[in-house]
Specification:
Shape: globular
Strand order of the largest sheet: 2-1-3-4-5
Number of domains: 2
Number of strands: 5
CATH topology of the largest domain: Rossmann fold
Radius of gyration: 18 Å
Number of helices: 10
Strand content: 5-15%
CATH class of the largest domain: Alpha Beta
CATH architecture of the largest domain: 3-Layer(aba) Sandwich
Order of helices and strands: HHEHHHEHHEHEHEH
Distance between the termini: 12 Å
Helix content: 40-55%
Largest sheet: 5 strands, parallel
CATH superfamily of the largest domain: Glucose-6-phosphate isomerase like protein, domain 1
Length: about 210
């Protein structure tokens, strides 16, 4: 995992200031997945796309082959030899992650009936359990719906990782670790968010599937 983080800094020297925070965030994720917890991701606009992107890297093989849990392939075959054979040949291991921006029916119903800014917090309330992790992505660190989600997560006993730009921000207050990339313009912040979360995905995948 250290080699992956070192390579990130070689490729993106500006992220040297974030190195310790990225390492701490990776440790939080490893601890959560080690205890059968899950990751919830949330963001707005381009950050919503990043939240979905992270889930895509976690829920299937990324750079390493994510193998199925011990005994699951055999259980698939025992349940139905024909379909189980197909399933065990093509299913991949996964690190459980859910992006909170993608549930259109739920989100629009909640926003229409209740409070639009709390649509992420409502899902944290429903999905979140102690030991889970919320990764809140906000270029400013002050997006109200992300802040409400972070408060809901902390009250649930979850860990919170913030991914923001360089300015001091409110998300830091509720984050166990806040990765503040050294840019302030939105598109430049987003350009540095991608290598950061790719590094996190690589580090976690290496921990669980590197052998």
């Amino acid at each position: 995992m250290k080699e992956i983080l070192d390579e990130l800094i070689v490729r993106y020297p500006a992220l040297e200031c974030c190195k310790e925070q990225v390492a701490r965030a990776a440790d939080i994720l490893v601890d959560a997945f080690s205890h059968d917890a899950k990751l919830l991701t949330a963001g707005n606009g381009g950050s919503a796309a990043d939240a979905e992107h992270i889930v895509g890297e976690m829920m299937k093989s990324f750079c390493l082959q994510k193998t199925l849990p011990s005994g699951y392939a055999e259980a698939l075959y025992a349940t139905d030899p024909e379909m189980g054979s197909v399933l065990r040949s093509h299913l991949q291991g996964a690190l459980p992650a859910i992006a909170l921006d993608g549930h259109i029916s739920l989100s629009t119903a909640y926003m229409n009936d209740c409070e639009p800014l709390l649509c992420f917090a409502q899902q944290v309330n429903g999905y979140g359990r102690p030991g889970d992790v919320l990764l809140g992505i906000s270029t400013s660190g002050n997006s109200r719906n992300i802040l409400y989600a972070a408060v809901a997560a902390k009250a649930r006993g979850m860990k919170v990782i913030g991914l923001t730009g360089a300015r001091d921000n409110r998300l830091e207050k509720f984050s166990d670790v806040c990765i503040k990339v050294p840019e302030t313009e939105t598109f430049k912040v987003q350009e540095l968010h991608l290598p950061v979360y790719h590094c996190l995905c690589l580090m976690v995948e290496k921990h669980f599937y590197g052998n």
